[in-house]
UniProtKB/TrEMBL annotation:
<dbReference type="Pfam" id="PF07589">
    <property type="entry name" value="PEP-CTERM"/>
</dbReference>
<dbReference type="InterPro" id="IPR048031">
    <property type="entry name" value="ScyD/ScyE-like"/>
</dbReference>
<feature type="signal peptide">
    <location>
        <begin position="1"/>
        <end position="26"/>
    </location>
</feature>
<dbReference type="InterPro" id="IPR013424">
    <property type="entry name" value="Ice-binding_C"/>
</dbReference>
<dbReference type="InterPro" id="IPR011042">
    <property type="entry name" value="6-blade_b-propeller_TolB-like"/>
</dbReference>
<protein>
    <submittedName>
        <fullName>ScyD/ScyE family protein</fullName>
    </submittedName>
</protein>
<keyword id="KW-0732">Signal</keyword>
<feature type="domain" description="Ice-binding protein C-terminal">
    <location>
        <begin position="424"/>
        <end position="447"/>
    </location>
</feature>
């Protein structure tokens, strides 16, 4: 640790002591797997082994199996056979459980891959694999030639055979439940009894799927996220640009922002977990420009019949149980019933990471705890937690997540013990801002691009639209 970092850390700790804040032994962040390509969601097996999905790093595009990314300035997403599921034994031994699974990712960085997305076990010990798409589902079978994407499979743990149970990409292509642009990206699942519940961050939907092989039983779209955005919440556009769309019509489900940019009002659900009361808790990421403090957490019953929940409703519809977050990518409950939420990056994504995987700022994330009485505290922020996705509690009482989950070659599986963590002040307080500043010292050294450069890239995207 260099002197300036050490000084700022001690200064922050001193203020906390002076103000009378109780400080317990600081939690440690442990890396239990490293060097992964786009690691995502995970689950513990009955024997204590941890199964982790990695979405891979895609292909080089030489075979033409590429589609434009709808969320990354239309950079090509190209297919390859390097998605996997890794198994980490209770003794720490690592092995590849499934390999050569289809992956699509941005070229040439391998960033923001879709492929193996989640792995879960039911109460009987049966295993299930979820795969994503992150693009136009009508191109999956034809252009990508990857019919295994965008589906839920039952996994034979002995033979490793995959039996398809549901085709979410096909359903999106045929029915488009949220009525906006055609995109599918199944991202996470939870299981209750004999049904799986899957959130699709591309289709902005939640599916109920029978695990007996009878297929999709129900689907609902998430309410749109209407936020009044100001121009300072966007990258600065190049000087002289009046109509960044070039007069093009808005895509379905988009509105015109204050600076003329087309903005999606989509929810983008990313995480789902079974709540202690038997309902499901769902986190959302939100849409470009990923407004800070706009992401919500939802409660949904197993029949997907929450009052007002469905297409075209206002943000007040459905049962919102928490808000004020930025880009959530996971939720989990501890044995006492407290809710934990994972914040992917603490500020709007476009400010910190260039589409294509070049880190230009601070990609630190946070983990928040929401107690049963609604009290909210920050369990961990920065200090090695970066652009993480997926959150679960292990049988050892530790939190597990996939770190640097959108990057190829540098992804990790990490664990944090919340029982020993010091309570980090909320960033709305002066002390909280100092604490978060200390956590981001290292990342702040990375070179930032100017807002005008970001605007030029964004303009390239909207011109294609």
């Amino acid at each position: 640790m260099k002197l300036n970092q050490f000084t700022l850390t001690i200064f922050t700790l001193s203020i906390a002591i002076i103000t009378g804040q109780q400080v317990a032994k600081a939690a440690s962040l442990s890396v239990i797997a490293d060097g992964l390509d786009n690691p995502r969601n995970m689950a513990f097996a009955p024997d204590g082994s941890l199964y982790v999905t990695t979405s891979g790093k895609g292909g080089d595009g030489a075979d033409g199996r590429c589609i434009p990314s709808p969320s990354a300035q239309y950079i090509p997403l190209c297919a390859g056979a390097n998605g996997s599921v890794i198994k980490i034994g209770a003794d720490g031994k690592k092995e590849t459980f499934l390999d050569s699974l289809t992956s699509i990712a941005l070229v040439p960085s391998g960033e923001q891959a879709a492929g193996p997305a989640d792995f879960k076990f039911d109460s009987k010990g049966n295993a299930y694999l979820l795969t994503g798409v992150a693009g136009d589902p009508t191109k999956r079978d034809t252009v990508l030639k990857s019919p295994d994407l965008g589906k839920l499979f039952k996994v034979d743990l002995i033979s490793k055979a995959l039996t398809p149970l549901a085709d979410f990409a096909g359903y999106e292509a045929q029915y488009n439940p949220d009525g906006t642009d055609l995109v599918s990206n199944p991202y996470a699942l939870a299981i209750k009894d004999d049904n799986a519940f899957v959130v699709d961050g591309g289709g902005n939907t939640i599916y109920k799927v029978a695990l007996d092989g009878s297929g999709i039983k129900d689907v609902k779209a998430f309410p749109v996220l209407n936020v009044q955005l100001t121009t300072d919440q966007f990258p600065t556009l190049p000087e002289g640009i009046v109509d960044p769309t070039g007069g093009a019509p808005l895509p379905p489900g988009y509105t015109q922002a204050a600076n003329g940019l087309p903005v999606s009002n989509q929810s983008v659900p990313t995480g789902i977990t079974l709540a202690p009361d038997g309902t499901f808790t769902v986190s959302e990421y939100s849409y470009f420009p990923y407004p800070e403090g706009a992401a919500r957490i939802w409660s949904i019953d197993e029949n997907l019949t929450t009052t007002g929940f469905g297409v075209g409703n206002s943000p007040e519809s459905g049962k919102e149980i928490a808000n004020g977050f930025t880009q959530l990518t996971g939720v989990a409950y501890d044995p006492e019933g407290s809710l934990y939420a994972l914040q992917h990056i603490n500020t709007s994504e476009w400010k910190e990471i260039q589409q294509g995987g070049v880190i230009t700022g601070d990609i630190s994330g946070s983990i928040f705890k929401i107690a049963k009485d609604g009290t909210r505290s920050t369990i961990w922020s920065g200090q090695g937690l970066e652009a993480a996705s997926g959150l679960i509690f292990g049988p050892d009482g530790n939190l597990y997540t996939s770190n640097r989950a959108r990057l190829a070659g540098t992804g990790q599986v990490i664990k944090i013990d919340p029982r020993d963590s010091r309570k980090v002040p909320e960033p709305t307080s002066a002390i909280g801002l100092i604490a978060l500043g200390a956590a981001g010292v290292t990342a702040a050294k990375r070179k930032r691009r100017s807002q005008e450069e970001l605007g030029e890239e964004l303009l390239a995207k909207v011109e294609i639209l």
